[in-house]
Design goal:
This protein is mainly β and 160 residues long. 9% of the residues lie in helices and 46% in strands.
Length: 160
């Protein structure tokens, strides 16, 4: 076996042995909404499931739909619920999930580049410490009520 073919065989075995970590993180039932057509901000919600054998962390999010995109949650302070930016992100435990929902964890989109209109699709990239980047299309659903879910999308992307 020549040196070149040996190197190719080694490279191929390394590539094949590398786990497809991002495929073990699934995004279910994503949707986005804003309070009104004239709103300057909106939010996105979803369930993120980790089927890998190790914990991970959602550390960031990006979207061309807004000038600024952050991970937020709500916390009670002095009897008042306040929305706060969570700079260190959200833990995604091994075999666990992150529920991003109204009144809890969510993606906050500030300085919308266009109004959120029913049925529009917002491109979004979730950034994980281990799984890396997962890009998905998030439909705008202005009619959804809290706790109301739709059919779940499976796989790496919401439309898979």
């Amino acid at each position: 076996m020549s040196l070149k073919s040996s190197l190719l065989a080694i490279c191929a075995s390394v590539v094949l042995a590398t786990p497809a970590i991002a495929q073990e993180v699934e995004i279910h039932d994503p949707y986005a909404r804003s309070a009104s057509p004239m709103a300057k901000s909106g939010a996105a919600f979803m369930v993120i499931r980790n089927h890998s054998g190790t914990g991970d962390r959602l550390i960031g999010v990006a979207s061309p739909a807004a000038q600024k995109v952050e991970l937020h949650t709500h916390r009670e302070e002095d009897g008042v619920m306040r929305m706060i930016h969570v700079e260190d992100g959200f833990a995604l435990p091994e075999g666990g999930e992150i529920r991003m929902q109204r009144g809890g964890h969510h993606v906050m989109l500030m300085g919308l580049t266009e109004p959120f209109e029913q049925g529009k699709v917002i491109p979004m990239t979730l950034i994980f410490e281990t799984a890396g980047e997962i890009t998905l299309d998030v439909p705008v659903d202005l009619a959804r009520k809290p706790g109301q879910g739709h059919a779940m999308g499976h796989g790496k992307h919401a439309d898979d």
